[in-house]
Amino acid sequence: MRSGELAPLEQSLGHDFGDKDLLIRALTHASAINGSDAGKSYQRLEFLGDRVLGLVVADILVERFPDAPEGELSRRLARLVSRETCAEVAAAMQLAGYLRVGGRQRARSPVTPGVLADACEAVIGAIYRDGGLAAARRVVERYWLTKIESMSGPLRDAKTALQEWAHTRGADTPIYQEVARSGPDHAPEFEIEVSVGRVAPGRGRGRSKREAEQDAAAAVLRREGVWGEE
Fold this sequence. Notes:
Elements: H1 7-13, H2 20-26, H3 43-64, H4 70-80, H5 83-93, H6 103-108, H7 113-150, H8 158-168, E1 175-182, E2 189-196, E3 199-206, H9 209-223
């Protein structure tokens, strides 16, 4: 990959790299390099980017939600830095077209959600190394601010709420089961069914199993009148 080919991506990111090699490394999957050059893959930058992303998003949350308790901030943070969200942001960045993969990874599927999420964090790590925390924050705000601001109102954990409700009724812990999966490998949709005691099962959908489980739990809570309609 030539550095000149990265100009559209840099424009999309809003960051012009002084060290183009950092960006190239952030886009390089381990499968695309020889074992002796393991340090040239995105793994170390991914490690760094994960921490930078968490710090920046946590700081923004503290600023944007001054009255939110620590527990709510933690749940918001967990969702915003999840692999699912990072994969969504990677798609918005159009990273798939720039990723360097090879061998078995290319044969399987080079743009799985997991690979996209890793690359997203690696790019953030690369921006931090190239331009510092302020540069990384600008890029995070560009792609995450709308997600942060759209999370209005208290963020509720449906799975925890359903488990607590089940236990107050003397029922066992809810059981979640995947009943359907559709869509391509890079953008799957899951359907999950949750069973809790003698209550009729509930179903939910989501772009990850976790999201579908939350949706299924919320469906039962709303149906049983534990939660009101939002």
